[in-house]
Amino acid sequence: MTRPRIVVEKNDHDKLMRLANGLVETRPEIAEELLDELERAAVAEDAKAINGTVQMNSTVEYRTDEGASRTVTLVYPADADIAEGKVSILTPIGTALLGMPKGRTIDFTANDGRQHKLTVVSVTKATTENGAAKA
After folding, report:
1. Residue 97 confidence (pLDDT)
2. Which has the closest alpha carbon to 6: 72, 50, 56?
3. Other C-beta atoms lying within 10 Å of the C-beta of residue 69
4. d(Cα 111, Cα 92) in Å, to the nearest integer?
5. Residue 70, pLDDT score
6. Could you tell me the pTM of the whole model?
7. Whole-angstrom Cα distance, residue 94 to residue 38?
C-alpha cells in the first residue's frame, strides 16, 4: 500500500526531529521509523494546512483492519499513559498516526512484528497547555 501524504506542524516537526535524532544511538529502530515519517512529511506553518490531520496532542478516532475502533490522544513520551488513552509518538501506532488526514488508511508494523492497517475516522484539534485550540 502506498503511504498517504502527511502534514506535520513546523514546531512539532522540529521537536520530533530532535527527539528522533536523540534516539539514534540507543533505540535506532524507533528513531529510524520516526525519522522516515518526518522526512516524507510536508511541514506546515499555516494552521489551515494541518486542519483535519493528526498532530501532536490531537485526539483521533481510528479503526483497525480487524474492525475495532479506538480513540487516543497522540502525545510526547513523557505524557504517555495508555490507561488515559494517551499514546506516545514513539510507539508504532503513534508514529503511524502522525500527520494522517481524516479518512485515510496506513499500514504499520506493531511491536510484535505483525502488519496492521488503520484508518483515521475523526481528528479533534490539539490544544495548548492552557486549553486553547492549537493552530
Report:
1. 96
2. 50
3. 10
4. 7
5. 96
6. 0.87
7. 13
Query: What is the rounded distance in angstroms from the CA atom of residue 58 to the CA atom of residue 52?
Result: 10
pLDDT exceeds 90 at position 132: no
In this structure, are strands 105-109 and 115-124 parallel, antiparallel, or unpaired?
A: antiparallel
* pLDDT of 42 higher than 70: yes
Q: Are 8 and 55 in contact (CB under 8 A)?
A: yes
Other CB atoms within a 10 A radius of the CB of residue 98 amount to: 24
Amino acid at 98: L
Task: For residue 21, give the nearest of 12, 9, 32, 5 by alpha carbon.
Answer: 32
Give the CB-side neighbour count of residue 58, counting CA atoms within 13 A.
28
Q: What is the DSSP string of 59-117?
A: EEEEEETTS-EEEEEEE-GGG-BGGGTEEETTSHHHHHHTTPBTT-EEEEE-TTS-EEE
Q: Which amino acid is at 59?
A: T
Is 60 exceeded by the pLDDT of residue 1? no
